[in-house]
Every structure is written in structure tokens, then in C-alpha cells.
């Protein structure tokens, strides 16, 4: 595919109408781009800020209509139909291509690509039978994690197996998913971090500062920036992200999630070829947000400065947090002033607040991350989540 520069005033088509598409449209709109999205849910978060084609992701005629209305097409989450993305490559301009999407939609393909890029991954094995699971678990050593090869997110499609007695029940449940299965050695990590890299077709690459991520019930709870890691680990994490972006010929963003073990070794856990939850801090704390950077990259404009302007903690707002948040909002500024922090609220425009559903986030800007964490911990909002 021949790279081309897409100038402001053009229309960006987005496969997917969730919150990531919404924030892409906000950032790109400020640059002068127009947006159209394809999503099956009427009045989707992105559809509230862009024209929307209401159709399923596998609807080829709807995808062709998206192509007709767009000068460039991107995707906001990796579980869109790779076949549709491949079709659009022949009928429109999709600078991210479908190859990376195809790779990151399957854990085995992703792991092999990571190894080819020089990254360390947790020891793993493909699983096709209960006997194969038992043999692989013995070889890798318990505990291990059984994962579906496709479709898992926020902890879905994963089973932590700590004893031999866990194997048969996990196989019985996992094999019903009808997808391939991968067994991974459980990495005893001390921190989870992520680095988001951006690459444009001309080859320029930039990384955002690493985020230290804390999960609760397998859903991202906090991202702390600067991450509480050594300069050597920070440099290696950024080097890995750049190497992966270049090896996979990424265009746009690639989020690289990593485990840090007690010896200081980094294991790459998974990739996301799109804006990422752990990069939301960039919206208020960096010179350029991840969303603006993604638009710049796919349009082959010079990438923006990724410098961190202030320490920040991003905290997710799930469905169960919305009611206590609304009660706390009138008083939260007084508490913030006492601690010298500045909370920035971002809501996604979703119609229904369901438990575990990502409804928004708050970026807490602070003189140091400890003050931001103190502001978060003093409220009753997230205790509901952590209980």
C-alpha cells in the first residue's frame, strides 16, 4: 500500500463506535478532520460526535458505504472483522492494514510475532486436548494460565490453574468456547506496565511515557505516570515498544502491555493496535494525547511531542461507580484543593451503567502521584469496586 498524506478537512472512517472512537473524533475534530463511524449500536459513543452507519462489523455493504464516505479508515478495537478490513484495503485507504489486525486477534500468532521482534514472552504451548493440557502444565510448571486464542479481554476467556485438580474443569469450560487455546506459564510479576508507541508510514516512531497499571477483577483500575520503575527498566520498555512497532510495520498506535518480574526482566503480555485504556492519561498530562497522535500517524503528519507535563493517575469509572460519583461531584473540588490535585472528568456517553462496564475515567493531575492516589483513596467511589 502506497502511503499518502491525509490533510485536515478530510473524513476519517472508524470501524467501531465505542469510547475510543469517540475520543478519536474529539481529538481529530480539533485538527479539522470530519468523522464517520460504523457500529451496530444506534447512538453509539462515537456516533454522538460523528456520522454513524448503524450495521454489524461483518456487514460488507455497510463497510463499503463507510469507504465511500471516508478518505482514510481506522479501527478503534481489534475484534472488528479482519476479513472486512482486508476487503476495505482493496477498496479504500486503510493505512493500518489488516495484517496487524490478523496477528493481534490470535494469541499464538501474536506471540510468534513478538518473539520474531526480539521480545520475551512467557513460556507457552498450544492446547488441543485435555491430555495436551496436562502434559503442557507439567512441562511449564504450575501455576499456569489457560487462555482462549481469540476474543478475550478484561480477563474474559482466562483460567488460572494452580493445582492438577483445576485442569479438567478448566478444559471442560474452555473447550466449549470453540476457539483455540493457549497455555502460559504464570509470570510472578511485581508490576504491570504498558508503553504506547506511534508510528507513521514514513517510519517516524515516538513513545509515550510508560504507565504503571493496577487491575481489579481483571479490569484496569489505575494507571500511574510516571511509573514507579527504574530508569533502566523505563528505557528497556520504550526500546521494546519501538522494536515491536518497527518489526510489525505498525501504522498508528500500538499498546504494548508488559510484566516486570523481581529480577527486572520484562515479559510482553499482549498487544493492542489502537488507542488503549492505559493511555487515557495522555489526554490531560502530555503535550499530545494518544488520540491526536493516532490521527497524526494514520494521516502521515509529523508526530506530536509526547512529553509528560505533570504527574498523573488515571482511574477508571465503571457502571457501579456512576451513582457514588454523581453524589460526590459537588464536594470533590474542595478535597482536591486540599491535596493540590486537579481531577479531569471524561465520560463516554453510554446509555446504561452496567457493573463492570467502562463509563468514563478521571485523570488526576498532581505535583506527585502520591497526592493523586490519596485523592482517589479518600472517596467512597472506588471502595464499591474494591469491596
Attribute tags:
single chain; 387 residues; alpha+beta; Rossmann fold; Dna Ligase, domain 1; D-amino Acid Aminotransferase, Chain A, domain 1; 3 domains; four-stranded parallel β-sheet; globular
The arrangement of helices and strands along the chain is EHEEHEHHHEHEEHEEEEEHEEHHEHEEHH
Total DSSP helices: 13
For the termini, the CA-CA separation is 51 Å
The CATH class assignment of the largest domain is Alpha Beta
Mean pLDDT: 93
CATH architecture of the largest domain: 2-Layer Sandwich
CATH superfamily of the largest domain: ATP-grasp fold, B domain
DSSP, total strands: 17
Output the CATH topology of the largest domain: D-amino Acid Aminotransferase, Chain A, domain 1
Computed Rg: 21 Å
* Helix percentage: 25-40%
The global form is globular
Strand content is 25-35%
Sheet bearing the most strands, described? 9 strands, antiparallel
| Low-pLDDT residue spans | none
By secondary-structure content and strand pairing, the structural class works out as: alpha+beta
- Count of separate structural domains: 3
